[in-house]
Design a protein that fits this description.
homodimer; mainly alpha; Tetracycline Repressor, domain 2; 10 helices; globular; DNA-binding
Chain lengths: ~200, ~200
Amino acid sequence: MGVSERKAKEKEELKSRILQAAKKLFVEKGIDQTTIRNIANEIEYSVGTVYVYYKDKNDILHDLHSQGFKQLGGEMKVLFNVADPMERLKALGKTYLSFALENPDMYDLMFTLKGPMDFLESMHQEEWNEGKGTFDVLRSTVNQCMETGHFSGHQLEPLSFAIWSTVHGMASLHNSQRVKGVNFEDPNTILMKAYEEFVKIIDRE
Amino acid sequence: MGVSERKAKEKEELKSRILQAAKKLFVEKGIDQTTIRNIANEIEYSVGTVYVYYKDKNDILHDLHSQGFKQLGGEMKVLFNVADPMERLKALGKTYLSFALENPDMYDLMFTLKGPMDFLESMHQEEWNEGKGTFDVLRSTVNQCMETGHFSGHQLEPLSFAIWSTVHGMASLHNSQRVKGVNFEDPNTILMKAYEEFVKIIDRE
DNA sequence: AAATAAAATGAACACTGTTCATTTTATCAA
DNA sequence: TTGATAAAATGAACAGTGTTCATTTTATTT
């Protein structure tokens, strides 16, 4: 049946248009300044149509959050070429931080806002596959670092978590406007300098 | 004049009652589930009255954020007794992290939510004194660590920022439900283990 | 061309933060 | 005590939000 296939494709396409409109408006005027009516208006459909394709606003937030993880995952995959695990670890951190600074709204959606997580819960889906997948990349890299003699005396899981926390903390403080309140240098500069201090420390491990 | 003094005191008192009602409701049912009408109801006044004492909701959020910093500041002051700066630094981190885990809503208000910062901006008050004061405690401690031979080859400001980021990152990931999505241990346990890894690392510095 | 299924609609609902003309209460002077 | 004045409290009204769902429009099949 060619008709139902075409219909499925059209549905997928309109859903994707809704998502891209949402992303555009989020970046343009912020997530909580973007309403369902705005999104509907952007694609020239009615409010009701948005609810045909998405359960609720959190559904949209979660879908966009997943898209963000695909992008970040793609940028991280490039670094699989880096043979030395320690070099790869440092590069991963830099990539992660750059992603956060360049896509603050997306980063918020992926790692701070409740919306996407509330959606998972409402679907009785307890697994956060996107987060787990990304953390796996970090953990396996740290594991290889340990296998090549680094981080001796450390525990893999908590250490990986501490490293994640460090870069996430930088991104998060920057994103929530807490950096500029404390230091009057350009926030991006102080952030990158802080990352350099982090690199100095783990370079000795 | 005794009358105007008494009036000023009464005003101060009612304002404080509004704040405490807000805090109670925030903890009970979450910040964005708490409405001005809820708060007014809690103290048995009308909505309008709340707006006599607070400019808007962000004003309340900011006031509560300041109260949180007073509490955290108090808990940190206790550690001034610890003579060795390195020991003090580690204790500061633990106190900071414990505060975040025990007062998640307050921590959110202090270090994540836009509300309090938006209020400052709306008041044309560019300085974030609460954050600066707290960061000063960390920086001066790190400075003393460096003066006693630790962290050689590091820069004070970015290093302090990196340390802040590490503990904030732990608190933030926990607070936004991202820890339990990735690791099925008790989130508090993995968090404390991660902090121990952090301690191991800076103990070598 | 009629019957059926699928998709899109937008008015309506219950809620939000916020305003401000009006009412109530307290203070002070005659 | 009374009337004038100032201060404080009020809540209806406004413009906005996310969400629902009976109704209408469009497309497909018979």
